[in-house]
Amino acid sequence: VQPKAPLLQILRVAGAQEEVFTLKEVMNYLGQYIMGRQLYDKQRQHIVHCQDDPLGELLEVDSFCVKNPSPVYEMLKKYLVVLGSSDCSRTVSDPVILPSHSTVDRPLPTMVLGKGKGPLPSGFHKDELLSGGESQENLGMEVEE
């Protein structure tokens, strides 16, 4: 996918340098952005507070939950363009015709923050719980397939 300029700016803040990404990479950089800016609720870390942040302005929300990635994906898809060999201008919301042998019965990917050893009750995965002074560099949003 190719993020449109407003989303690409946010991904750049999280360290993205590419112009074209997989959806998993977009979600990973988005998670890094959320963690880096500490937009998550400190007690309920699956809640992202973004009312005073460019992310909130982009998504037109004050906060959202990352337990279920579908609503987050719905908010992001208008800022993503699907790139393909024949049609490079199709947006994520445009229908895609799949071959008859395709399997679309797989569940939607789930989004988690971090790359830890197991889920926390909030639905995030982290290497370890972080206190105020610990580094948050390896935390990012992933799409589990």
What's the level 1 CATH class? Mainly Alpha
What is the number of beta strands?
Answer: 7
The shape, in one word, is: globular
Please, how many helices?
A: 4
Low-confidence stretches: 95-140
Estimate the strand proportion: 5-15%
Number of domains: 1
Strand count, sense and closure of the main sheet?
3 strands, antiparallel
Question: What gyration radius follows from the Cα positions, in whole Å?
Answer: 16 Å
Which architecture per CATH? Orthogonal Bundle
**Secondary-structure element order, N to C:** EHHEHEHEEEE
N-end to C-end Cα span: 17 Å
- How are the strands of the biggest sheet laid out side by side? 1-4-5
Can you walk through the features of this model?
26% of the residues lie in helices and 14% in strands. The protein has four helices and seven strands. A hairpin with a 7-residue loop joins strand 4 (80-82) and strand 5 (90-91). It starts with a strand and ends with a strand. With 145 residues, it is an alpha+beta fold. The chain has one domain (2-94, 108-144): Orthogonal Bundle (MDM2), CATH 1.10.245.10. Mean pLDDT is 73; it is low at 95-140.
